[in-house]
């Protein structure tokens, strides 16, 4: 995009003609909807624990390349109108049009576009990007924009509370309205007098911790009154508040209460009948620490706790001892986190208006009190080309397009309170970010905890924010800078120079990050030049949010800045059922690292069986780090997470939603060190989570801990019954006496032979006979024995695709050209035979996993760019995600009587499968799949909507089943 500059003004003049919009993806005269194939799907969602149907809408329309999970979450979460009525939205087109056309109208009304043609291009480009999952707005946009409801577009709020009863009660009220709308809020309670100070009446103040009880009860009541998730809130207290020690220990002491009640037989699971008796469970707590305090921790000196009224020192504490208490409480229950006050305010663009004192619940949005932020995230894998280069120019253009749309939304948005609306309109804080960083790093052969990975992440983040502020300065020339800019101009420009200086400090290592960094450098040059001339339209531009629900909407493998959760994941199928998959990022990474196809297949098959890469056949140990994950056998070290956050933090207006995971055996001292290193590395906020530190988490079977305790008690008084051992054996399914068979003559490398295959009445393969060599020869005898072994195994239920996996690509002589037009080359007789059997007896989708296609299918690939099933196949309800998979993916392994009904995604999307298997009915999410590989329960809550075990997304949790989150985005 380009712009026509004019004088900075809050009103549009004749000179300010608006921005001209450049085409990125679309073609003039062609609507984005006309370029994709659409299909009707049935979305039926059940709570797997109760069996109850919680949602049903049939015949919804989605692009065929959207996954089942994405279409389910969008249908259940974002479609408006009562189900079963004409007003109900019936497809993705209606949803996107509802949002995009509202943005376009507001852009026209407020003078953003130079011409009507620019408005149309903006509409088409925004539609294309949303349709193709290039980016997504945050959930409130999809909930509210274009409906009769208030046009609420923000997910994150910061409230303010003063030292008066009126303000405290107003806090309860405002927070309640925000929770009711499904968003979250944060605030700092440090203005409230401590329990060590006097009231004007002469009595002793209650202190902020006591008022937290009332707010916590309010949040719990609103949740139980109809919300489908826990209220999301953040409570912050300054480290110099006299009640800081009580605040630090509140949730840790409640965790002790949970343990005691659990042991007494009460149901203390999250959502259990008795958990409501425990306090402070509806908020994240954070301590706001200063540089002065952190230096006192380093030096081992005393630190003063000050009066809220006059700032005098009421008492002193040993700083190192207090930090030890903070770390110990976090070790016990994961709270409190840390926010680094001086670092936050050193990067503050509006200090003349007020300090930043708090954050939203997930700690990525940090700005003025009584403000809000609307978010949007780009899908990084959409910018990775087939040749493994990053499309820098398109990434920058999309960032500018999205930031333009986000700013337009403030023009028509509604807000829960007038003070929030006034501050947001005056400062126009935005939060552009990204998802799929972990998948991008893996796909390009970068270790998450590596210098190369950090250089790439830093360069991308720098370019993102540089492009956003560049567009902000361009918009300021057209529609004026934000209202609060004039009084904060010097500070804002100083922060822009800090971002630019940080960009100059990035040390690139490879061609990819060098190209991105070069573009970022140009963008920051433009930011400084244009900002000096025009000012800026937005006080803030970027954050890194959890991207929980919208990450699933975009079919992302990883959320926000997070690494891959695990190498093997759980995936739903369009036609029902589910499967275990290995992401396409893994074979793509292996090829990037230079491995041959057969080695890639062996490694992927090993990962599908083991869930990790340790001792994978042919994989070099120096490449293990590329496949390190957040959880599992090779999990990333705590400082690996901290270093990645530190690499990207200097390029963000806000902060990063992320939790640093530590193993169960981590010590208090290790947590303390993480907090100290986070400060030294320049982070704005940091939260930790030690595995299994919280009791109030349900087990994977959803069973009550109270029931477990009772069962354990009963076991002490009752004799154990002998264990019954049930042995399962396969049953042989014999072929009928008269059966259909076919004989194929073939030649491999000039050697001739015959393949006879017999089938059951239903057409399933049941036996083979191979004639190769002279009768009575050793070779002929071996072929007979081999044929009998394969036939008996087929009749005992061994899937044909298992043999296809094992025997294709097997190399020995004779090998070479064949006389079969569908299999032109064979590496051995076995390679040919099982390729031929796959073509004759396996369906198109199963063969696509293995890269086995007929000559006709390959010809169609040359014409259309992707494989397509033959016209007479009856698999029309299958997704097209795997149609290009055969060029890069490894084989699959599935049961013969349960064929996989879904394709994996194209290589360029990063979603999909490299080795797919039907999963047990006991597994309903990637977290539960990881439990199977780890052999231990994953420490994550159950979704309150559908009963699925959630998985981490930033500092929150997200449900793969229905998209619900425990946070605010």
From TrEMBL:
<feature type="domain" description="Ribonucleotide reductase class II vitamin B12-dependent N-terminal">
    <location>
        <begin position="43"/>
        <end position="133"/>
    </location>
</feature>
<protein>
    <recommendedName>
        <fullName>Vitamin B12-dependent ribonucleotide reductase</fullName>
        <ecNumber>1.17.4.1</ecNumber>
    </recommendedName>
</protein>
<keyword id="KW-1015">Disulfide bond</keyword>
<comment type="function">
    <text>Catalyzes the reduction of ribonucleotides to deoxyribonucleotides. May function to provide a pool of deoxyribonucleotide precursors for DNA repair during oxygen limitation and/or for immediate growth after restoration of oxygen.</text>
</comment>
<dbReference type="GO" id="GO:0004748">
    <property type="term" value="F:ribonucleoside-diphosphate reductase activity, thioredoxin disulfide as acceptor"/>
</dbReference>
<keyword id="KW-0547">Nucleotide-binding</keyword>
<dbReference type="InterPro" id="IPR024434">
    <property type="entry name" value="TSCPD_dom"/>
</dbReference>
<dbReference type="Pfam" id="PF02867">
    <property type="entry name" value="Ribonuc_red_lgC"/>
</dbReference>
<feature type="compositionally biased region" description="Basic and acidic residues">
    <location>
        <begin position="894"/>
        <end position="905"/>
    </location>
</feature>
<dbReference type="Pfam" id="PF12637">
    <property type="entry name" value="TSCPD"/>
</dbReference>
<keyword id="KW-0846">Cobalamin</keyword>
<dbReference type="InterPro" id="IPR013344">
    <property type="entry name" value="RNR_NrdJ/NrdZ"/>
</dbReference>
<feature type="domain" description="TSCPD">
    <location>
        <begin position="736"/>
        <end position="840"/>
    </location>
</feature>
<dbReference type="Pfam" id="PF08471">
    <property type="entry name" value="Ribonuc_red_2_N"/>
</dbReference>
<keyword id="KW-0560">Oxidoreductase</keyword>
<feature type="region of interest" description="Disordered">
    <location>
        <begin position="863"/>
        <end position="918"/>
    </location>
</feature>
<comment type="similarity">
    <text>Belongs to the ribonucleoside diphosphate reductase class-2 family.</text>
</comment>
<dbReference type="GO" id="GO:0050897">
    <property type="term" value="F:cobalt ion binding"/>
</dbReference>
<dbReference type="GO" id="GO:0031419">
    <property type="term" value="F:cobalamin binding"/>
</dbReference>
<dbReference type="InterPro" id="IPR050862">
    <property type="entry name" value="RdRp_reductase_class-2"/>
</dbReference>
<feature type="domain" description="Ribonucleotide reductase large subunit C-terminal">
    <location>
        <begin position="154"/>
        <end position="689"/>
    </location>
</feature>
<feature type="region of interest" description="Disordered">
    <location>
        <begin position="699"/>
        <end position="721"/>
    </location>
</feature>
<feature type="compositionally biased region" description="Basic and acidic residues">
    <location>
        <begin position="707"/>
        <end position="721"/>
    </location>
</feature>
<feature type="compositionally biased region" description="Acidic residues">
    <location>
        <begin position="872"/>
        <end position="883"/>
    </location>
</feature>
<dbReference type="GO" id="GO:0071897">
    <property type="term" value="P:DNA biosynthetic process"/>
</dbReference>
<keyword id="KW-0237">DNA synthesis</keyword>
<dbReference type="InterPro" id="IPR000788">
    <property type="entry name" value="RNR_lg_C"/>
</dbReference>
<dbReference type="InterPro" id="IPR013678">
    <property type="entry name" value="RNR_2_N"/>
</dbReference>
<keyword id="KW-0170">Cobalt</keyword>
<dbReference type="GO" id="GO:0000166">
    <property type="term" value="F:nucleotide binding"/>
</dbReference>
């Amino acid at each position: 995009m380009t712009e026509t500059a004019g004088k900075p003004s809050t009103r549009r003049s004749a000179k300010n003609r608006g921005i001209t919009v450049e085409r990125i993806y679309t073609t003039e005269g062609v609507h984005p909807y006309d370029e994709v194939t659409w299909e009707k799907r049935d979305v039926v969602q059940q709570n797997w624990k109760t069996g109850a149907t919680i949602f049903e809408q049939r015949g919804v329309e989605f692009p065929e390349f959207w996954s089942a999970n994405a279409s389910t979450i969008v249908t259940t979460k974002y479609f408006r109108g009562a189900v079963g009525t004409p007003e109900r939205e019936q497809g993705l087109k209606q949803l996107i049009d509802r949002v995009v056309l509202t943005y376009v109208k507001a852009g026209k009304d407020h003078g953003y576009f130079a011409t009507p043609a620019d408005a149309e291009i903006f509409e088409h480009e925004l539609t294309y990007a949303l349709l193709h999952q290039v980016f997504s707005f945050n959930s409130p946009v999809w909930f509210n924009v274009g409906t009769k409801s208030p046009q609420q577009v923000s997910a994150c709020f910061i409230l303010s509370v003063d030292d008066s009863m009126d303000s405290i009660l107003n806090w309860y009220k405002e927070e309640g309205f925000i929770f009711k709308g499904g968003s979250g809020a944060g605030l700092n309670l440090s203005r409230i007098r401590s329990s060590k100070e006097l009231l004007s009446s002469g009595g002793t103040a209650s202190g902020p911790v006591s008022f937290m009880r009332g707010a916590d009860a309010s949040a719990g009541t609103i949740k139980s009154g109809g919300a489908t998730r826990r209220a999301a809130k953040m409570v912050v207290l300054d480290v110099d508040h006299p009640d800081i020690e009580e605040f630090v220990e509140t949730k840790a002491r409640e965790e002790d209460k949970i343990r005691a009640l659990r042991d007494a037989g009460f149901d203390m699971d999250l959502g259990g009948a008795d958990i409501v008796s425990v306090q402070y469970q509806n908020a994240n707590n954070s301590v706001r620490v200063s540089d002065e305090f952190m230096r006192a921790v380093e030096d081992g000196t005393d630190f003063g706790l000050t009066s809220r009224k006059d700032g005098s020192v009421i008492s002193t504490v040993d700083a190192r001892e207090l930090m030890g208490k903070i770390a110990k409480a976090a070790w016990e229950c994961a709270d409190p986190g840390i926010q680094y006050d001086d670092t936050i305010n050193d990067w503050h663009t509006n200090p003349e208006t007020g300090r930043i004192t708090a954050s939203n619940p997930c700690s990525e949005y940090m700005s003025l009190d009584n403000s809000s932020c609307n978010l949007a995230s780009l899908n990084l894998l959409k910018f990775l080309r087939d040749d493994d280069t990053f499309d820098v120019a398109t990434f920058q253009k999309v960032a500018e397009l999205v930031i333009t749309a986000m700013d337009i939304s403030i023009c028509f948005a509604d807000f829960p309170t007038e003070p929030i609306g006034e501050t947001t309109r005056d400062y126009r804080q935005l939060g552009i970010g990204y998802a799929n960083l972990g998948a991008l790093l893996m796909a390009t052969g970068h270790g998450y905890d590596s210098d190369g990975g950090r250089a790439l992440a830093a360069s991308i983040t720098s370019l993102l924010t540089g492009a956003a502020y560049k567009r902000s300065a361009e918009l300021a020339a057209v529609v004026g800078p934000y209202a609060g800019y004039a009084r904060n101009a010097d500070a804002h420009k100083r922060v822009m120079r800090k971002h630019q200086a940080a960009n100059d400090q990035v040390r690139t290592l490879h061609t990819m990050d060098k190209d991105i960094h070069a573009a970022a450098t140009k963008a920051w040059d433009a930011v400084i030049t244009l900002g000096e001339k025009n000012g800026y339209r937005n006080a803030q531009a970027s954050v890194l949010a959890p991207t929980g629900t919208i990450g699933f909407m975009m079919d992302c493998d990883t959320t926000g800045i997070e690494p891959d959760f695990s190498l093997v994941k759980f995936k739903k199928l369009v036609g029902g059922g589910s499967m275990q998959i290995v992401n396409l990022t893994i074979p793509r990474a292996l090829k990037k690292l230079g491995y041959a196809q057969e080695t890639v297949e062996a490694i992927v098959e090993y990962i599908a069986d083991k869930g990790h890469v340790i001792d994978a056949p042919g994989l070099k140990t120096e490449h293990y780090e590329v496949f390190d994950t957040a959880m599992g056998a090779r999990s990333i070290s705590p400082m690996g997470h901290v270093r990645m956050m530190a690499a990207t933090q200097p390029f963000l207006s806000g902060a990063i939603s992320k939790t640093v995971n530590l193993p169960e055996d981590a010590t208090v001292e290790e947590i303390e060190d993480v907090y100290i290193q986070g400060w030294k590395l320049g982070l704005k906020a940091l939260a930790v989570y030690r595995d299994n530190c919280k009791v109030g988490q349900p087990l994977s079977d959803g069973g009550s801990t109270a029931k477990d305790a009772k069962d354990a008690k009963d076991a002490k008084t009752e004799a154990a019954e002998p264990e019954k051992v049930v042995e399962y054996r396969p049953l042989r399914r014999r072929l009928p006496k008269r059966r259909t068979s076919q004989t194929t003559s073939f030649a491999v490398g000039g050697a001739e032979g015959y393949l006879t295959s017999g089938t059951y009445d239903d057409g399933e393969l049941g036996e083979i006979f191979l004639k190769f060599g002279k009768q009575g020869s050793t070779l002929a005898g071996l072929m007979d024995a081999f044929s009998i072994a394969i036939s008996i195994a087929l009749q005992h239920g061994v899937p044909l695709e298992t043999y296809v996996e094992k025997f294709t690509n097997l190399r020995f002589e004779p090998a070479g050209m064949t006389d079969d037009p569908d299999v032109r080359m064979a590496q051995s007789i076995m390679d040919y035979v099982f390729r031929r059997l796959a073509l004759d007896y396996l369906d198109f989708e199963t063969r696509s996993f293995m890269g086995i296609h007929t000559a006709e299918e390959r010809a169609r690939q040359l014409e259309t760019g992707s494989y397509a099933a033959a016209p007479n196949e009856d698999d029309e309800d299958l997704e097209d995600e795997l149609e290009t998979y055969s060029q890069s993916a490894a084989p699959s392994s599935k049961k013969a009587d349960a064929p996989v009904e879904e394709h994996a995604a194209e290589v360029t999307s990063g979603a999909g499968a490299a080795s797919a298997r039907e999963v047990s009915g006991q597994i309903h999410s990637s977290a539960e799949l990881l439990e199977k590989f780890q052999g231990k329960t994953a420490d994550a809550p159950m979704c309150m909507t559908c009963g699925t075990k959630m998985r981490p997304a930033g500092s929150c949790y997200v449900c793969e089943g229905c998209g619900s989150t425990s946070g605010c985005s």
